[in-house]
Amino acid sequence: MSIDKKTVEDVAHLSRIELGEKELEKLSGQLEHILAFIDKLSSLNTENIAPTNHILPLNNVLRKDEPQSSLPIKKTLQNAPEKQGNSFVVPKVIE
Amino acid sequence: MKYEAVIGLEVHLHLNTRTKAFCGCSTEFGKEPNTQVCPVCLGFPGSLPVYNQAALDYAIKVALALNCRVQEYTKFDRKNYFYPDLPKNYQVSQYDLPLSVHGFLDIELNGQLKRIGITRVHMEEDAGKLIHQENASLVDFNRTGIPLLEIVSEPDINSPEEAYEYLAMLKSTIQYLDVSDCDMEKGSLRCDANISLRPAGTKILGVKTELKNMNSFKGVKDALSYEIRRQAEMLDSGEKLRQDTRLWDAKAQETIAMRTKEGAKDYRYFPEPDLPPFIIKEDKIAEIKKTIPELPKEKMQRFIKDYGLTEYVAKILVASKQGALFAEECLKKTTDKNIKSVANWIIGPLSALTSSTCAIHELNISADNLAGLVDLVENEKIISNLTGKIVLEEMCKTGKTAKAIVEEKNLAQISDSQSLNSIIEEAIKENPKSVADFKAGKANALMFLVGQVMRKSSGKANPKVVQELIRKRLANA
Amino acid sequence: MELYKLTAHELLKKIKNKETTSEQIVSDLTKRIKGVDAKVQAYVRASSSTLLAPDSKPNGIPVSIKDNICTDGYNTECCSKILQGFNPPYNATVINKIIASGNSFLGLKCNMDEFAFGSSTENSCFGPTHNPWNLDCVPGGSSGGSAAAVAADEAIWALGSDTGGSIRQPASFCGVVGLKPTYGRVSRYGLIAFASSLDQIGPLTKDVQDSAFLMNIISGYDAHDSTSINIPVSDYTKDLINDAKGLKVGIPKEYFVEGLDSEIKAIVEEAINKLKSLGAQFKEVSLPHTEYAVPVYYIIATAEASSNLARFDGVQYGLRAKAEGLVDMYKKTRQLGFGDEAKRRILLGTFALSHGYYDAYYLRALKVRTLIKQDFDNVFKDFDYIITPTSPTAAFGIGEKMDDPLKMYLSDIYTISVNLAGIPAISVPCGFTKKGLPVGLQILGKPFNEGMLLRLAYTYEQNTAWHKVKPRL
Hints:
The complex is a heterotrimer of chains A (95), B (477) and C (473).
Chain A: H1 5-14, H2 21-38, E1 62-63, H3 73-77, E2 83-84, E3 87-91
Antiparallel strand pairs in A: 2-3
Chain B: E1 3-14, E2 51-52, H1 53-65, E3 69-70, E4 73-74, E5 77-80, E6 90-93, E7 100-109, E8 112-125, E9 129-132, E10 136-140, E11 147-153, H2 160-177, E12 189-199, E13 209-214, H3 217-236, E14 245-249, E15 254-257, E16 270-271, E17 278-279, H4 282-289, H5 296-307, H6 311-317, H7 321-332, H8 339-352, H9 367-379, H10 385-398, H11 402-408, H12 417-430, H13 432-439, H14 443-456, H15 463-476
Parallel strand pairs in B: 13-14
Antiparallel strand pairs in B: 1-11, 1-12, 3-7, 4-17, 5-6, 5-16, 7-8, 8-11, 9-10, 12-13, 14-15
Helix pairs in contact in B: 2-3, 5-6, 5-7, 6-8, 7-9, 9-10, 12-14, 12-15, 13-14, 14-15
Chain C: H1 8-16, H2 22-40, E1 43-44, E2 62-66, H3 93-100, E3 104-110, H4 144-151, E4 157-162, H5 168-174, E5 177-180, E6 200-205, H6 208-218, E7 248-252, H7 262-277, E8 281-285, H8 293-308, H9 326-337, H10 340-353, H11 359-382, E9 385-389, H12 405-410, H13 416-421, E10 425-432, E11 438-444, H14 450-462
Helix pairs in contact in C: 4-5, 6-14, 8-10, 8-11
């Protein structure tokens, strides 16, 4: 399977990464090259093989419903690029 | 053309655990923004989730109460999309192996029973809250990570009324389980709807719209009614419907098309690598099943059978779990003769005294006292219905028995003719026109005279006896 | 004094004998870093970060930390512009364990490939780290800063992370010991995730004994990590036994084929002979799905990474680009903040998960991962260990592979399978090329059997002197 420029553009939008024309050109070529290599997998018959979602045989990992202390507001906001009062600020979200 | 609506509802429900789904932050409502957050629910780099045992148990409880099959193997997946209320830009949810599938909920409308299929009940986490300002939006992550259930119905609902009934029954059932407060105002229960129309009697699938932003059950009903009209008009005029997402504007009473966000096919679901799967065995299911109380539908049927109540009365009595418990206690403490009256007193005068902050079982009145009051009114005829209501209010205020209040305030009915006759004579003297009217065959005139006697006796006269006495007195005159 | 040259276990002995103090060690180390780091560039943000170990305990040895492990109060940026200025509000579990053990850590962090994406530490927004053995060569990656710091005596010991070889390959390139623990052995809480199902934190040390010491400190169950396993951890120093007699080792034929540098092959074979002479038993084995490991890895790792890195959006922390509106802010922030390799991997991973491609790529990769795991299970039925070269080549020149991402990916060909199978592995120095570059021997073991790994590595080390040779700086 190969990947064309349009697909790379779509994927870049889904990933919320802006790409310049040159960057798009370069990345499309590289991704196509990498995918050609990855396509090696398609030669394997995987029909009756269970996928490995987790390598460990763990299940039912749960914690008790017991409150722990939350972060002090100062620490929560110490990295905020923009804040107002107790809140993070983002450009207006239009629905 | 005549159309049939095909409606499916998607309900999101907060579980009332003490802590969030994946961290120990409190879930308490209404706190200062961003004060109930930690690296995990803020999605800080490096943080990892660990699921809440209570959230899993509650989820299983809901699934079982909705007659779902709980799957033995279930896992979390990531649903990927960018939005500022979603700190990781993915939501931990469930995709191809949800907690439970194939359930149903029975609803009743106009005496007809209808079974609504439930496709799945799955576990996920809630997002944060955006507060929109003129030029920016503020983000509050307190709600982020609160454990959520998504309850998806089959498109078995065919009218806004059925949708309303489904939601009411769902809410009532879940409240019986004590796993959510189901408060739409607080956002702990939210509902989206899918609706399409098809020519009545056909099985064609129409173009469906997704409706969001309904803030009450009535809002859901109104939005669906609006949408049925809108779609029908478009179809009638030969316009092509678009598959879109529309927001309900409760003020304008209309739906507005939303700018499309990422579509379902763009979510890139994949198994959440940070959370191992759950294996839910039969013994776990049996253990949780034991904690499920008698649900509203069963309780209603039992009330009808055991107490001989009508379906209408029984349905109102079982609407809330606490209310039903109180009602049943009252019914048990009443003589068979008085059962229907007690039920009517509960759904009538007593319900009138409740408020949003004080439910029926929280009123200051015990089952014994209510039974005592009804006995005074119905059996011993010591007080009238009207006086009974006044006594009931007084009982709620003071917690005293009806008998005590009646004695204290001297409210007992006057039924002996001797005491009543002098008042009746007075009333007849003062109202010659009414007397003439009565004699001329106007029945209303009698009721007027009875009313006069009641007023003169400060409501204590027994109206039935008064009526008889007046009738006799005028017949003899 | 030149305390910085010593290992942690040597220094601990000196502290115990009151021959030195923790303060002296830190001050000596500080001098060494000031002296040589301009050449090696193993640490980042030297001008703005504190060199001194915080929370220093009187008996503690400072640990150097890779820039993707969260340290409360000390910047943790994954050597990415997008995390510029990020000061985590909490400590990673391994950091808390280091503090609880009476040791300390450096506020100054080790260089790495951006988000651990790479095999050369060239993908760092702070520029490359130089290999102490040849400053024109890369130190390997992505934990190149940690490995180079240990090799250059700029660190007593260090922590790195390993997703596809990021501890072992730089250990091999820099001539130090690097251990990748079993998945689930060391808590990942506070490790900024690259690929959640593959990542593990592990030690980079001057010798095997220090590796055992550091493993004792960082291993064990953590209630904050659902993938951390709750089974007891033994005292790894008890496994430091100089005896290989009767230990059964498999040599996978798929690892000794075209692509393996002939010089490396000869050096590794010599190491195998050495172990034979010490009583270990060798036999050729097969891991038939080896050739699929790299493609499987680059699907699973990038898919998980694309999701893990979605949170870097300029809302709560790090870089935020000037923009018109929300979507524009996301897109510009991520364009500016991520380097080329990060963008490549995010796009590749997003593609592998996207509608219509999921089954052909991601799901298929998960299935082949099962086959790769089975390969190892089969061999470990009859063998205690598998031995391979750590890398098909010695350190390569800076800039040499930067224009060919695929070529760079293939330099992890011997280390990737281990992460896919979740098993532990260690790289120990086993010689030098004619050009004087170190070569690493990779020993693979059974899950949760780090002790056995340490035993064979220790035996080899005690009977060779490679780990004692130091680069001249």
